[in-house]
Automatic annotation (TrEMBL):
GO cellular component, one term: cell outer membrane
InterPro entries reported for this sequence: Beta-barrel_TonB_sf (IPR036942), CarboxyPept-like_regulatory (IPR008969), Oar-like_b-barrel (IPR057601), TonB-dep_rcpt-like (IPR039426)
Protein name as annotated: TonB-dependent receptor
Organism of provenance: Rheinheimera riviphila
Keywords: Cell outer membrane, Membrane, Receptor, Signal, Transmembrane, Transmembrane beta strand, Transport
Length: 1002
């Protein structure tokens, strides 16, 4: 990890003339030691200071007192050096410190200002004079060692002051994108770390897990002004962290100080600064993206107050963060117009109490509740907005509460404990009861009718968590031991809009034959009623041990092991998945080849486990009832679409077929294979870093990641049907879909009472019979970085990454079809869906060039820049799986059903039936992002005034992020043809916007 904190001046204060001896002592005091400093495991809420104290004659000094004083909160902590002159000060809250090294009979060395950063290790190695007649030498600032030879975790750390001078929008994802190895997702509001999906990262604030509770895609919403420092970890992560495969974003909040501070900030992103983009049309003139009349407006304010409750002892920080966002847009069918409004009044409070020098208590609370509304209107391109058709209201958000204790029992032994709760709740309230209706025959899947909300959801999530960490400093070892526990409670209810028989999702489309339910091929109206609900839990416990061992003066070994258990329960309260005894080793080996700390060679290896998301409790274990009814079309309008009845449902003819996907019953022994193993990935890295001057460093890192095992939901119905026939078991449960959590490439075992005789059959399906390919996902990368200050006025973060992500599965979510359903995507639903599924994955970005920084025009004006150039994601050609080939051909057990055909154009084939392997259809265009900011800093009426203007997407690039990847259309006679809309953009790079921020603080 790396953090940049430099000062331009290094001055010496004195009251007498300094002779040559004192100048020599000063130079020595600022020199980075040529011998090792003790290593220490990192903390996820604070930083540390370490080093070795010696005399001018080279003797390592014991019993030297090292005292640090927080310059803003006033508290002090002291420690004495051991027999080797080594010292460590752990658990230092982030901020600026004064450091004093003193010993009886010797002149002290004082460092006036030193920055402690989140999760970082600062090394200060003072040299004391041999004689006792030299007075104190004071240094106001010094450049500290840039290379941390005790740790090789990859990533960057940013403080709020740095981000405030850069064109970086609020939110963790915008900070993460500054870091090498992190790529923007084309579909989700979260990033891909090292080729992992956007749902496989971990997010932490003040030691609390704040990852999105249902899906893990990103974090909960936060009052961004409250964040003091953000640390992005992309690889080589210690055993302290788990429940992720991609990476970690870790942050600490603002705290009060000994000075009362208050102020406010206003941000405006007015619609007048909104640069519109052209609409995108399909070849036939229909709209793919309708940007006509699109507009948006964002306003935000921050008001804060902080200060001492008791000087040097207790502090508070309070923040109020009202936000308003408005947007308006027409749909691509050019029939409906929506006005959206989101109101938020977020708040944040942090209290710090330094009970004694060695014992601290921190309490944090926040609220991120929001109210949303959608006003729907009729619309056409000539007349614009028409009659109001309805209103949908919603509430979202929740709160977080936590308490953290940190105690230093001795100079060598410390303990920390964290307990807290994160809550999130969402409700949707429509003002009309019309069901959702779509026409796939005439309108390419566009909605018809005046309905506003097709799906009604009420959901509440509550994550209770606790952890205890113990650190013990020995002679050449630092041992860290920890225990943590999380309980995520889920209360979920979902059903479709509509009254009585009109309730459901209605789709008018052409279907291939489904013999299993006696449905001939043809054009039908399908009504789908899916009710889901219940209370479930996700539980996890873990224990870890980490040892940082200074093997020699130039060699460090960080070795850790993490043992964890994951459990998911169904609405019955029974456990449906229990993943026990997961062992995750983590190793780092760091070598300082010169022994003076200006370079390092390192290697890491680690295993990371991913729990089953709460989303799977809802999808698999919540008593879901899913019924499909197929009707002949009734009366049709002049354009060929179904005529709608007064209740909003389409006019229908006779019922042709009924399909029971799920009956509502929950049998935990059928939800998951009884030999289910965890999803996990291994990582290997090798790297080199070197200082390139006093304030600049460069590095290179090789990364290889391998997804060893995944968990997928597969419909085993086709294979189970043959098992039932072979074993002469009658299926009386009226179900033919058997979605089961499995490890692809492994045997499957489950129990279920098919014949309703009161005795469950034991179904055993071999990996060979299932013929599901191994869930490979591999990531290979070379990272080249340049970070620091080339000059006193310029600070940069630069990187180039060549990477390749390939395999059979993206991971928990799917970008290429937009599924934000962790663990419940169409991947591995059927073996035929995976035919030709190996190739370049959606998060493959072969080349990524990043350059960001701050240029000091003068003391008052700062220029900020963020640029990225990213090669485009791979493209696919999706079509209906042809009959009689690959897995849809005997002797495959999936052949009789060829069930992937029910998903229409979802298989890796071109329109003419020829294989089209994953990612083989080329790539999207390169994505160029250029953001620019200009900040003015001055003092007005005794306060600090900041005015900042930012332009996002300076050149208003409109590169497609997503395109239509359906290669095939079905003609009315059932024949296939090439889809002329293939490759047409469905999502564009966000248009140019401008932001103005005015900030004033006393």
């Amino acid at each position: 990890m790396y953090y940049i904190q430099y000062n331009k001046e290094c001055r010496v204060k004195h009251s007498h003339q300094i002779n040559s001896l004192r100048l020599s002592l000063l130079a020595t005091a600022l020199t980075v030691a040529l011998h090792s400093a003790p290593v220490l495991a990192q903390d996820n809420t604070s930083g540390l200071l370490r080093g070795v104290v010696s005399s001018t004659s080279g003797q390592q000094l014991s019993n030297v007192t090292i005292t640090v004083k927080h310059l803003e909160q006033g508290f002090s902590r002291s420690v004495q050096t051991n027999s080797k002159g080594e010292y460590v000060l752990r658990g230092l809250p982030v901020g600026r410190y004064q450091v004093l090294a003193s010993r009886n009979g010797q002149a002290p060395v004082e460092l006036q200002q030193l920055q402690i950063s989140l999760g970082q290790s600062q090394v200060f190695t003072p040299v004391l004079p041999d004689s006792g007649d030299i007075e104190r030498i004071g240094v106001t600032a010094a450049a500290m060692r840039q290379i941390d030879t005790g740790d090789s975790t990859a990533g960057l750390t940013f403080d709020a002051d740095t981000l405030d001078l850069m064109p970086v929008n609020t939110g963790f994802e915008n900070v993460a994108l500054l870091t090498p190895g992190v790529a923007r997702s084309a579909q989700f509001d979260a990033s891909s770390f090292g080729g992992a999906s956007a749902a496989e990262n971990g997010y932490f604030l003040n030691g609390m897990n704040i990852s999105a509770l249902r899906t893990g895609i990103g974090s909960i919403n936060l009052p961004w002004e409250a964040i003091a420092q953000t640390q992005v970890k992309t690889g080589g992560i210690s055993a302290e962290y788990d429940r992720f495969i991609g990476g970690v974003v870790n942050a600490v909040s603002q705290s009060g100080t000994n000075e009362f501070r208050y102020g406010g900030e206003v941000r405006l992103d007015p619609s007048a600064f909104y640069s519109s983009q052209n609409s995108v049309y399909n070849p036939n003139g229909s709209l793919s993206i309708n940007n006509q009349d699109a507009d948006e407006n964002f306003r935000e304010a921050n008001v804060w107050l902080s200060g001492p409750i008791l000087e040097d002892k207790a502090f508070f920080y309070a923040l109020l963060n009202p936000r308003r966002y408005n947007s308006e847009y027409a749909n691509s069918a050019a029939t409906a117009f929506t006005e959206y409004e989101k109101k938020e009044d977020r708040w944040f409070v942090n209290l710090d109490w330094y009970i004694t020098e060695d014992h601290t208590l921190t309490v944090t609370a926040l609220d991120n509740s929001a109210e949303e509304s959608w006003q729907s209107y009729k619309w056409n391109s000539e007349k614009g907005t028409g009659d109001h058709t309805g209103t949908t209201l919603g509430t979202a958000g929740g709160n977080m509460y936590s308490a953290r204790y940190q105690g230093f029992l001795t100079d060598d032994l410390s303990v920390s404990a964290t307990i807290g709760r994160v809550e999130d709740q969402r409700d949707t309230v429509p003002t009309n009861a019309l069901p959702g209706v779509w026409d796939h025959v005439n309108l390419n899947g566009q909605r018809i009718g005046d309905w506003t909300t097709s799906n009604l959801i009420s959901e509440t999530y509550q994550r209770d968590q606790a952890r205890v960490d113990l650190t013990w400093q020995l002679d050449s070892h630092t041992l860290q031991f920890g225990v943590d526990s999380e309980k995520l409670s889920v209360d979920y209810l979902e059903y479709q809009n509509g009254v009585d028989s009109a309730r459901g999702w209605w789709e008018y489309r052409t279907y291939t034959a489904i013999p299993r339910i006696n449905l001939p091929g043809g054009t039908y109206i399908r009504q789908r009623q899916r009710d889901t609900g219940g209370e479930t839990e996700v539980n996890s416990e873990a224990v870890y041990l980490q040892d940082s061992w200074q093997m020699t003066d130039s060699l460090v070994l960080n070795a850790g092991i993490r043992y964890s258990n994951f459990e998911n329960t169904a609405t019955t309260g029974e456990t449906y998945a229990e993943l026990k005894s997961q062992l995750a080793p983590r190793l780092q080996l760091i070598w300082d080849p010169t022994g003076n700390g200006d370079k390092k060679v390192f290697a890491t290896v680690g295993r990371y486990f991913q729990p089953i998301a709460a989303n799977m409790n809802i999808k698999q274990a919540s008593g879901q009832k899913d019924l499909h009814f197929y009707y002949k079309p009734g009366q049709l309008a002049a354009n060929g679409s179904p005529v709608l009845k007064p209740d909003g449902s389409p006019d229908i003819g006779a019922l042709v077929a009924t399909n029971t996907v799920q009956s509502g019953a929950v049998d935990v022994e059928r939800i998951a294979s009884d030999n289910l193993g965890p999803m996990y990935s291994d990582e290997w890295t090798l790297g080199y870093e070197q200082e390139l001057g006093d304030q600049l460093k460069g590095g290179v890192r090789f990364v290889y990641r391998d997804l060893k095992q995944s968990i997928e939901d597969s419909d085993l119905g086709p294979v189970v049907a043959q098992w039932l026939a072979t074993n002469k078991v009658q299926n009386k449960v009226n179900e033919s879909y058997f979605y089961t959590l499995i490890n692809p490439g492994k045997d499957v075992n489950f129990f279920y009472d098919f014949d309703l005789d009161g005795k469950k059959e034991h179904v055993q399906l071999s990996a060979a019979d299932l013929a599901l390919p191994d869930p490979k996902r591999r990531y290979l990368a070379w990272e080249f970085t340049l970070e620091g200050r080339p000059t006193e006025d310029l600070q940069i973060f630069g990187s180039y990454v060549w990477s390749h992500s390939w395999g059979m599965t993206e991971g928990l979510v799917r970008t290429d079809n937009g599924q934000a359903d962790p663990g419940w995507t169409t991947s591995y639903d059927y073996a035929d869906l995976m035919d030709h599924g190996a190739g370049n994955l959606p998060n493959d970005r072969r080349h990524v060039l990043k350059l960001s920084g701050i240029y000091d025009l003068n003391d008052d004006w700062k220029l900020g820049l963020v640029t990225r150039a990213t090669s485009g994601q791979p493209l696919n050609r999706f079509s209906i799986h042809p009959t009689g080939v690959d897995t849809c051909k005997a002797p495959s057990l999936w052949a009789d059903w060829c069930a992937s055909q029910w998903y229409d154009q979802a298989s890796f084939y071109d329109w003419d039936g020829k294989p089209a392997p994953r990612g083989s259809a080329g790539n999207l265009d390169w994505l160029y992002e250029v953001d620019l900011s200009l900040t003015y800093l001055t003092s007005v009426a005794g306060g600090d005034l900041t005015v900042k203007g930012t332009i996002y997407n300076l050149f208003n690039f409109d590169t497609p992020l997503r395109v239509n990847e359906i290669a095939q259309i079905t003609n009315t006679n059932g024949s296939f043809a090439a889809n002329p809309d293939w490759g047409v953009a469905s999502r564009l790079q966000k248009n140019r916007t401008m932001s103005l921020v005015v900030r004033y603080q006393f």
